[in-house]
Amino acid sequence: MTEEHQRLEEARNHIIHWKRWGPYLSERQWGTVREDYSPDGQAWDYFTHDQARSRTYRWGEDGILGICDDQQYLCFALALWNGKDPILKERIYGLTGTEGNHGEDVKEYYFYLDSTPTHSYMKGLYKYPQAEFPYTWLVQENQRRGREAPEFELLDTGIFQENRYYDVFLEYAKASAEQILIQITAINRGPDPQTLHILPTLWFRNIWSWNPNSPKPLIKVAKSDQQFSVLEASHPTLGQRWFYCEGSPELLVTDNETNYQRLFGVENQSAYVKDGINNYVVQGDNNAVNPSRVGTKVAPHYRFTIGAGETRVIKLWLSDAPNIPQPFGSEFSRIIATRRSEADQFYHAIAPPGLNDDQRNIQRQAFAGLLWSKQYYYYDVETWLKGDPNQPPPPPERLKVRNQQWNHLNNADIISMPDKWEYPWFAAWDLAFHCIPLAMIDPDFAKNQLDLMTREWYMHPNGQIPAYEWNFSDVNPPVHGWATWQVYQIEKQLHGTGDRQFLERVFQKLMLNFTWWVNRKDFDGNNVFEGGFLGLDNIGVFDRSSDLPSGGYIEQYDGTSWMAMYCLNMLTIALELALENPVYEDMATKFFEHFLYIAAAMNNIGEDQRQLWDEEDGFFYDVLHLPNKEQLRLKVRSMVGLIPLFAVTTIEPETLNKLPGFKKR
């Protein structure tokens, strides 16, 4: 057993909370539905990138290659300034849905290079141009181009010519579950010496502005000399942490409070505001940071002139220990090297035999991408709809925009995201697919994710699984049964036994979801299903998530095929559970028969010509039902027509022989 496997065991058995700290910070909180209090639901426009440096978030935080605790009380991320940009580089930039010629699109280059499942070691890379970042040019050129033209990327601006950029590597290594070593390595890849400002930033998520009963946390300078400085961060729930900073950088302290004066032209409620460090460094405003060095947001300010090809390294330590006598001695380097080596051992152990070095690296970085894409996701829909008691009430029109039927949904969890910039919100069916590779390295986290989506604070009381924050009521393919079985099998292969309690718990909740599909998405009760968008980008003649302009409805071959597959997934799980509990034998029979009904309905050639199968074309098509009872096949061919092939399973003879009741039926 490797050291990382041992840490996973300690986390699984609740001995040591190795996963309290991780890459749970979003890369984009601005422009999200959660931060949108507009009357029309235009989330991208309500809270913009330009506002983000000055405006406090309500539901989360963001930063570059950052970390936080699992409740996002205390956050850390990288900030940079090349001496030319109009603002600090504190967050990843990209175009909004209306600015990009192909919709929203991130316009930066950053890479997830490594991570272990407990985040005992992580490494990321951000490429920072030395010339002024072309914010305006990127917007204007992409808006000028039509949808048929390629996107105008940062690389197309020529800003990286002659390698005039910095590679900024960020490494995290845990000395213990509560002690995190941070090493920043900046390399000048260009031909000339350049000045780089590095501002590693520590701050508290603002809870106190929305909840007047929440005590305000505090960061203050505890020690400062030529060797290192120490910042003490005190939080009423998280407790105390100490942030050790190598050398004697200037310590800049402000508050994570909205700059109302800049944004809205009214007096600030706090003397020091969120963009105070930006204004001090970039604009030279000496009054923008607190001279008493007390607040809720702090950054040590390192300034280096780095020669061509040269490297500068900064060492930091976030700890629950107040008195580390020599934080940046040889022990620091030893811990970093040890965690790197342990990460090597872990990934060597889990890689299939026969892979060459390139293949191992591809697999390892793919896992790093998944692990870095965990995010603290906080969204209390009822509070979001009603507004906070000490804030102006939201416009009543927004109650008709989205998610008003999801008052019960209250999320505050670490969730695997499709992408922490473009999609910094969970997408239920994407998540199901994430869980398959995640189970190979951390089956407990994979099981947790599938379980979450079926818990009562996620799943609707009617049994629907929430899709994504833009419209929780949208319909995604029912793949959670398949994912649950796959994760169960992967863990069984890894550990020798499967987690039957997990399998049974999720199966019970998926019964509710299956019933929701049958009751809500089978318009005529004939085992042919509608569904709507269903997650795939098979955009057709009609918006399948909305009412048809002609009236009527569409029977969908993909929706029906997914339900046939869902039947077989539930059948497979029921058979496994029936081996130890005969009650599930009846459930297996139920799903087997339901599958036969759906298969017959898809292939039936009746007098009314309702079948989805076209015998002449040898393909499945949607059927449009008009109000006048006319039925039209929508002969659009795509890979979606192959989804019926997913509905296949094999029942082994030994399983049948152990379940005589099911076999007889």
Contiguous helical run count: 17
Number of E strands:
26
CATH architecture of the largest domain: Distorted Sandwich
The order of strands across the largest sheet is: 7-8-9-10-19-15-14-13-17
Radius of gyration, CA atoms, in whole angstroms: 27 Å
What do we call the CATH topology of the largest domain?
Beta-galactosidase, Chain A, domain 5
Low-confidence stretches: none
Helix content: 25-40%
Describe the structure.
The structure is a single chain. Helix content is 30%, strand content 22%. The protein is of the alpha+beta class. It has two domains: 3-22 and 62-370, Beta-galactosidase, Chain A, domain 5 (Distorted Sandwich); 417-664, Alpha/alpha barrel (Glycosyltransferase). The strands form six sheets. A nine-stranded antiparallel β-sheet has the order 7-8-9-10-19-15-14-13-17. Strands 1, 2, 3, 4, 11, 12, 16 and 18 form an eight-stranded antiparallel β-sheet that branches. Strands 22-25-26 form a three-stranded antiparallel β-sheet. A hairpin with a 2-residue loop joins β9 (165-176) and β10. α10 (428-441) packs parallel to α12 (480-495). The longest helix has 22 residues, at 557-578. The model has no long low-confidence stretch (mean pLDDT 93).
